[in-house]
Write a structure and sequence with these properties.
Layout (H helix, E strand, L loop, with lengths): L2 H12 L2 E2 L9 E2 L3 E5 L2 E4 L7 E2 L10 E4 L2 E4 L7 E6 L13 E6 L13 H4 L8 E2 L3 H10 L4 E4 L8 H13 L3 E6 L5 H8 L4 E5 L5 H9 L4 H12 L3 E8 L7 H15 L5 E5 L14 H13 L5 E4 L9 E2 L6 E6 L2 E5 L1 E2 L2 E2 L13
Parallel strand pairs: 9-11, 11-12, 12-13, 13-14, 14-15, 15-16
Antiparallel strand pairs: 1-10, 2-7, 3-4, 4-5, 6-7, 8-9, 17-18, 18-19, 20-21
The structure holds iron/sulfur cluster.
The site of iron/sulfur cluster has 12 residues, from loops.
């Protein structure tokens, strides 16, 4: 039976929708917080460090102060559960053609006006219908559906940290791999603990200035994201980057160049970078989609800066969806949409010239 059909049938049989409750399903005592005074607490999970009085929630809407103790409402209650191609995450240097059991809990610690998944990322876990899927069930379903990866994605996995961490630990014990797509807005302590169980992480660099992170509704800072990138790299976890190119907002060639030079200098020339096409959505539905020529310009700038693996995303059939050997220029991995058309990587090397290609390839 086709994997996808199997999973849909399994979903119908095993999953029963629930709503998270302030004191019930999906709720668990949180990690990474401290008492401030009396019953006021401070969350230490992400750089926002929300200080919360009793019954207040953090910016993410997932963490709540309940009588002086911080709880998460995002444990075991994903709002989205899908089997996806690993290319959709996007991971282009991770087992091409593999499938990823992908989960997300509602909520996010950013408020991007251009969010492409705003229906779930900007909802509270108790506002949307969720699945009842504890960590051990995620692992079981991953195995049953024939996936090698569990990927935490669609919204911001940091805000369902405890659920992700417990699942990732169990998945690792079962011989599965873990991946995450994140905005990178997490404090160093929880990140370090999490990275022990992560095999691959894709981080969004949303723009390359503090002004952009403030202006676009995120009320966030760029610096903690850059710190996260360096920490992932130095932990030896596979890293890819995504930059959603929004017309007139973060597509200034000079800024793109600055970003690419920073990447090369701090993360190396082999980290894959995905320039992704913006599709009008959420509060920026009035803008046009990113012109393909603009994405090509970004890619050209990145390659001029010395980056070796630069991709264009959300433009199915574009030649820059594929991987090319930086040494002999031959096609290494052909892609069309999320479909693999050709794979010329053998034992992690270009089969034509022997050039070592960084990534996680088949064992
Ligand atoms: S994880 Fe949520 S509650 Fe904690 S600091 Fe970040 S936004 Fe605030």
């Amino acid at each position: 039976m086709n994997k996808r059909v199997f999973f849909i049938l399994a979903a119908l049989i095993f999953f029963s929708p629930v709503y998270a409750q302030d004191d019930g399903a999906g709720s668990k005592k949180a990690s990474y917080w401290e008492k401030v005074k009396d019953k006021t607490v401070r969350c230490l999970l992400c750089p926002r460090q929300c200080t919360l009085d009793v019954n207040q929630r953090g910016v993410c809407t997932v963490r709540v102060n309940r009588d002086g103790t911080l709880y998460t409402l995002g444990y075991g209650n994903p709002v989205a559960v899908h089997v996806d191609p690993i290319e959709k995450k996007p991971f282009f240097h991770v087992m091409p053609g593999e499938t990823a059991f992908s989960i997300a809990v509602a909520g996010c610690n950013m408020r991007c006006l251009f969010c492409q998944n705003w229906q779930i990322s900007q909802s509270r876990p108790d506002e949307v219908e969720c699945y009842n899927l504890p960590p051990e069930e995620v692992v079981n379903k991953t195995v049953q559906s024939g996936c090698k990866f569990v990927v935490y994605t669609y919204t911001e996995p940091t805000v369902f940290y405890e659920y992700m961490l417990d699942t990732a630990r169990m998945a690792r014990k079962k011989g599965l791999k873990n991946g995450m797509h994140s905005c990178g807005y997490i404090n160093p302590g929880p990140l370090k603990e999490l990275l022990q169980y992560m095999d691959a992480v894709n981080v969004d660099i949303k723009g390359f200035s503090r002004e952009f992170y403030n202006k676009m509704g995120m009320m966030a800072e760029l610096e903690p994201v850059l710190r996260t990138l360096k920490e992932i790299k130095s932990a030896g976890v596979w890293l890819e980057l995504t930059n959603l190119v929004i017309p007139g907002e973060n597509d200034d060639p000079q800024k793109v160049r600055e970003m690419c030079l920073w990447i090369r200098e701090n993360l190396g020339d082999s980290v894959p970078v995905h320039f992704s096409r913006f599709i009008p959505a959420y509060r920026l539905a009035n803008l046009p989609p990113t012109p393909v020529e603009k994405l090509q310009e970004c890619r050209r700038i990145a390659m001029e800066c010395g980056l070796k693996y630069v991709y264009i995303g959300n433009v199915p059939g574009h030649y820059a969806e594929s991987t090319y050997c930086p040494q002999c220029d031959k096609l290494l991995v052909g892609r069309s949409g999320y479909r693999i058309t050709e794979n010329n990587i053998m034992d992690g090397k270009c089969k034509f010239c022997g050039h070592q290609v960084p990534g996680i390839w088949r064992e």
